[in-house]
Amino acid sequence: MLDLIGPPHPDLAEEIEDICSQTTSWKGIICRLWPYAKYIEAVVTGSMSQYVPALKYYSDEKLPLVCPMYASSECYFGVNVNPLCEPSEVSFTLMPNMGYFEFIRWGKTGQLFDGFLEEERRGRGASA
What we know:
This is Indole-3-acetic acid-amido synthetase GH3.9. One of its GO terms (molecular function) is acid-amino acid ligase activity. It holds the Pfam family GH3. InterPro entries: GH3. The protein is of the alpha+beta class. It has one domain (2-121). It has helices at residues 2-5, 10-21, 29-33, 52-58, 116-121, and strands at 40-41, 65-66, 69-71, 76-79, 93-94. Strands 3-4-5 form a three-stranded antiparallel β-sheet, with no helix packed on it. It has a two-stranded parallel ribbon with strand order 1-2. The radius of gyration is 25 Å and the shape is elongated.
């Protein structure tokens, strides 16, 4: 694992501890820990919108919250054409070429179409 993440960095750990111990509030801690950060990329819609106030608090509202993609655990569905807008104003353009979508056909009987079994139910199935 050390080959992957590298050796411990005691100087960096001490710097982080110093920054965190110098404050009586976590407000703006993101900007103190990462002073060169330009924005926070996060999901700010749906069930994740409950975290927007916390992200604003921890960044002291100095960093924009950027939500560039509309996604699920399976794939991306679309893009936010105005990623720097306020979280409450986010809207997405769906891009059908960004993911694979499988559309399962329904059989004439109202059941999921499963090829051979559907034909067998209609009486045209296997012959002896």
